[in-house]
# Entry
Amino acid sequence: MKRVISSVLFAVMLLAIAPALAQDGTTFTWGTFGNPVSLDSMNTTDGISFRVITQGCEGLLRFDKGTTNTLPNLATSWETSEDGLTWVFQIREGVSFHDGTPLNAEAVAWNFNRWGNTDHPEHFEEFIFTYYEYFYGGFDDESVIASVEATGEYEVTFTLNAANGVFLTNMAPTMTSLHSPTAVRENGTAYGDPEVGFVCTGPYQFVEWLPDQRVVLESNPNYWRETEGNVDRVVFQVIPDNAARFAALRAGQIDGTEQINVEDLDAIEMDDSLAIQMRPPLNILYVAFNFRVVELQDARVRRAISMAFDREAIVEAFYPPGAVVAKTQVPPSLWGFNDDIPFEAYDPDGARALLAEAGYPDGFSTMTIVGADEDGNVTDEVIDQRPFTIWYQPVVRPYNPDGQAIGEAMASYLADIGIDATLETRDWGEFLQLGRQGELFGIYQLGWSADTPDPDNFTGTFFINTTNPLPRSGWYQNPELDALLKTARATSSQEAREPMYQQADQILHDDVARLWIAHTGVPLGFRSCIEGYYANPVAEYYSTVVNNCG
# Structure
């Protein structure tokens, strides 16, 4: 298989622009399959947004090229106390945000305090700050971070409430990028929106965002690091249809794109003007249950739905070569994977028998929805009855090449066991918001691409804090699992942590907490005249490329 030549120092995933600009040797054009949600890295959870943000925003650490190894970035060094409760970072001097605001210890502390303290004036109620909750266990007193203080002009001290095995690694992903305090204060809740974009420290700065068209960035003339490559202008061009993006690539209207259709991979192999990379498979497509649906509160119904899906057929029909059927939340390429868990066999007869045992011998076509009280506890009060629904993702995702087609296949499998399901979706931003609020009633497609090379990023992200029902995980509740994952996160030794994550996945399997469909490598297509692009396993595309297309 042909590969793009890797020849630069550090790595980005750039963008796409109008066809006329594609011939400019200093422009890299990337065809993207949807709009960003927000360009504030703590106000979004989607990869489309992060691909833009990564080009211009940086954190204290970074990932090295196409690896998951972490390197110093805006922090030059750090040290920790013997008990792991105190971390002191030395901040790089001479760095400014794109608006000229200096990067110093106060700016670093301001970012973390803004994210984690709900009484901070810029912790906007309209924003989600989901990744802070994911990485640090919650806000205010629930956070593992007790305090963040500037203890010198370029020294920041983090004090933790408990040791945390992933604290340092979580300083590298795009989500913990630092933003200009001045820009956030001046723009308020408009920060991150199309009229403002981002204001960070990285090699590219925001120019414009025209929804459903493109996002444009240009080189930062005051960037603190010398960058290689020849790209001065980076644009994400929105082309939702896979086939249309591939046609634009072949025509030279874009320089690169993600999520090539399986049927187009051979065409790239045979075309000397094109090249392909496969991003390593560190992701998961899953189907989640909403536990406010009475029918889905019965584990026998959940298991029947799981047994109804022919995962091997789904992977064969929709995924590129090398994709594998999933059986756990953690991918098999990552430490912490539990290989002892069996694959869920395709067994429609067994599924029908389980439905009958659960009281649905003829299946069902409607779902009964119950309420949640002011403390977030699921009640017995019936508030609605609706057609049973499969929610499919409305955009192509690295782990989901065709949400609608896969949803249609799932509906067909459920019909075979007597469950009549309606397909439904929303635009991407609303879909994510409904998911966070626990309002995707029925079953729904979602997935995950690794932010860090740690099983906590797959399992802890979703199932810590499930002592009470967790809306963003479909109102799932499991105090035993919550306690186990918190212990694992607070343990420093990988050797000691690994069996905890294996046990966690066993609990999820036994509980039929959700259904796992596939892990897949992600095909990236390029014009062969593009050099220096690194397909990072955790989708951190911060490379500077060489555009030799002329």
